[in-house]
């Protein structure tokens, strides 16, 4: 069944305009990817943070205020970052705060930790080195992410060497830890960059597709409006001018005045909404026949009019297009065939639809020889019926012309 034009307009109005202010629609994939990255970071950081917290609790001397301050400076911002990642709010701010405070805490570790209590095992703060890197991924641009990924392992390596007094056994283990952490941090940044690039590519492709569709829709709407206006000019305005030119009597002049009044009214209503162009209540074959008889009277032509079949109800919009297309076919028959053998058949098909056949016994014409600027057939008949999902078929030969119009319920 044909789609309501009002519904199409309402649906189209909900699509944001591409190319202006960046909208939620245009950045949908990027925002979704950021949400996924934040969730993954929350899970991984939560596991490593729990491991580091257990190690901190078991190794920290709680009577030492500096050690307690170190635990608070590291784990309170980490908890804030985890909450932000889970809720999806202020992720960049929370991650940036943790990344900066963690670097400060890691650099101050040799000063805060009592040298007599240094252990040969890795300190608990080491478990969070890569957490600091992923925090930078969430908070900073790419060049700062790379700076964090390179700086944090070397800061940690320096801290371990200071703790070990730069002894030989510390160099081997520290070099292994630094290289492992450096490679893992660069891999994390590369993955984040890759996922974000893919998301940005998808958003750009979507934006281009929407822009292309918007352009195509605008072009189609402009072409539809041009065809409708051309059909209106041909059906009403030009017909009124011809009638006025040929008016040679009182009745002909009255007819020309009526046609001119109708043409001016239709021109004034060209920008009216679809709902104001007439009711869309179902129209039967009998009402269409009445309109065709009125058209014959206005044209001053005689024709055989037959009604066949059932009632044949169709929507008012389709009925108006059917009547206007039939009027154009009648006008062509009168103008080019002098109305010879004019015959109209209106066949109702119950709830299925209606078909109209307008035939004459004139000399006929060749459809292929009609110029593109002649809109009597292309716009007033073919395009008009196509606009309401109807059908129009024209057969013409030296024996006459037959125009078949139809509308069926899909």
UniProtKB/TrEMBL annotation:
Domain of life: Bacteria
Bilayer-crossing regions: 36-62, 68-86, 93-113, 125-158, 170-195
Keywords, in A-Z order: Membrane, Transmembrane, Transmembrane helix
InterPro entries in UniProt: HATPase_C_sf
Protein name as it appears in the record: ATP-binding protein
């Amino acid at each position: 069944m044909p789609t309501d034009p009002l519904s199409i307009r309402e649906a189209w109005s909900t699509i944001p305009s591409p190319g202006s202010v960046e909208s939620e629609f245009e950045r949908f994939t990027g925002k979704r990817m950021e949400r996924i990255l934040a969730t993954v970071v929350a899970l991984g950081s939560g596991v490593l943070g729990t491991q580091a917290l257990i190690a901190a609790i078991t190794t920290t001397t709680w009577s030492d205020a500096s050690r307690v301050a170190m635990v608070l400076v590291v784990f309170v911002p980490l908890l804030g970052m985890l909450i932000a990642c889970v809720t999806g709010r202020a992720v960049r701010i929370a991650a940036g705060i943790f990344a900066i405070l963690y670097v400060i805490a890691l650099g101050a570790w040799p000063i805060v930790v009592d040298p007599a209590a240094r252990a040969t095992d890795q300190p608990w703060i080491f478990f969070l080195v890569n957490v600091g890197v992923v925090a930078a991924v969430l908070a900073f641009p790419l060049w700062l992410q790379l700076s964090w990924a390179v700086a944090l392992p070397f800061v940690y390596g320096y801290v371990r060497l200071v703790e070990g007094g730069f002894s030989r056994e510390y160099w081997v283990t520290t070099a292994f830890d630094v290289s492992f952490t450096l490679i893992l941090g660069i891999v994390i940044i590369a993955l984040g960059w890759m996922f974000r690039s893919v998301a940005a590519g998808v958003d750009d492709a979507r934006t281009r597709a929407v822009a292309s569709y918007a352009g195509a829709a605008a072009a189609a709407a402009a072409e539809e409006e041009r065809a409708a206006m051309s059909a209106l000019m041909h059906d009403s305005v030009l017909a009124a001018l011809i009638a006025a030119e040929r008016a040679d009597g009182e009745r002909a002049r009255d007819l020309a005045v009526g046609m001119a009044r109708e043409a001016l009214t239709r021109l004034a209503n060209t920008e009216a909404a679809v709902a104001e162009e007439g009711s869309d209540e179902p129209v039967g074959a009998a009402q269409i026949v009445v309109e065709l008889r009125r058209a014959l009277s206005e044209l001053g032509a005689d024709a055989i009019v037959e009604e066949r079949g059932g009632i044949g109800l169709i929507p008012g919009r389709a009925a108006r297009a059917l009547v206007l297309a039939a009027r154009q076919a009648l006008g062509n028959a009168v103008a080019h065939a002098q109305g010879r053998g004019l015959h109209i058949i209106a066949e109702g098909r119950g709830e299925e639809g209606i078909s109209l056949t307008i035939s004459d016994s004139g000399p006929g014409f060749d459809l292929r020889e009609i110029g593109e600027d002649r809109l009597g057939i292309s716009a007033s008949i073919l395009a008009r019926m196509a606009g309401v999902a109807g059908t129009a078929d024209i057969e013409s030969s030296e024996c006459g012309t037959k125009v078949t119009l139809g509308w069926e319920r899909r």
